Amino acid sequence: EILEQEPENIGARLGVARSFGAESNYQAARQAVDVALERAPDDIRVWLTSASIASNAQDSTTALEHYDRALALAKASGEPRNKVAALSGVVEAQLALGNYEAADESLQSLVALAPEDVAVKYLVARSAFVRRDYDAAEARLDDVLQAAPSFLPGRLLMGATQFELGRLGQAESYISGVIAAAPQNQEARLLMAEIRLQQGRADDAAAILGPVIQSGTANDAVKTLAVRANLLAGQLDSAVDVLREQLDESPDDPDLRLQRAAALLAAGETAEADSILACVDDEEGDVAFRRELIGVYALIGRGNPEAAGSAAESLAEKYPGKPLAHNLLG
User: Fold this and answer.
1) Does residue 71 contact residue 87 with C-beta atoms inside 8 Å?
2) 290, 258 Cβ separation under 8 angstroms
3) Beta-carbon neighbour count of residue 28 at 10 Å?
4) What is the rounded radius of gyration, in angstroms, for the C-alpha atoms of the chain?
5) Which of 69, 79, 23, 24 is nearest to 46 (CA)?
6) Is the CB of residue 268 less than 8 Å from the CB of residue 237?
7) Would the pTM of this model clear 0.85, i.e. be above it?
8) DSSP for 246-281?
9) Separation between Cα atoms, residue 226 and residue 168, nearest integer Å
10) Which residues of the chain are modeled with pLDDT < 50?
């Protein structure tokens, strides 16, 4: 309503963008913030919001570019709070891109600027986490959560840290709290599903990811784990549905085609699996091997053991270094 009455109201437009982003509707969020960028290219709020949306959408390259722009505006204005926000985003994006040396330099500047800021301490912990120094990350996060017990990014990272340290119960405790507070947080649901799979509870893992899949906003990592969870839980139709959606988005991806063919074979739908395998390019390397391996399974699924045996012998001869090929002969 505010936008209808005041179409130039940048704050309202950014509020709309953030609302879409909170729902993981990044395409709509991007469209809203792009209009704001056109109308207010020198407004630091616009660049910070745009960068945040890009970061949440896992577009770290764009996030870094936009945080850099925000940082330049913050330096020009001399506003410390904006500088901390922009530099924090720069560190996050650099870590996500694996630019650790640059991230260290940015982080040193950030700590010097705001040494007691909880978000800054969190980034120090995150820097340790991405380097797989989980003990250091845990120690830093203890300080963060002692100062701000309800700080969700800190709780999520602590859950991930406990998971990497093999403490599934503690990891579950932290992550369940994040999901309760932010049900649409895909990273939290993804980690909880991994915990359930580690516990041998594939059906629960699939159920945890289900709401995100059904919302139509799932990222690739969620979809990939949902396929795995559904297959392990014996929910073959659900696995095929997710793979079908992924293929619609990336129709030329041979790996997705092979995954879908394997799922269809498990579901007993050999005809559709055959049609998919026929469309996979006979490339060199692992894709070619997997295509032929699934083709053997297709013959087994159609009840043609003689043809399957012959194909398995040919496969083992062609790929002598592949144990799976030789296992078929047994």
Assistant:
1) yes
2) yes
3) 14
4) 24
5) 69
6) no
7) no
8) HHHHSTT-HHHHHHHHHHHHHTT-HHHHHHHHHHS-
9) 20
10) 5, 284
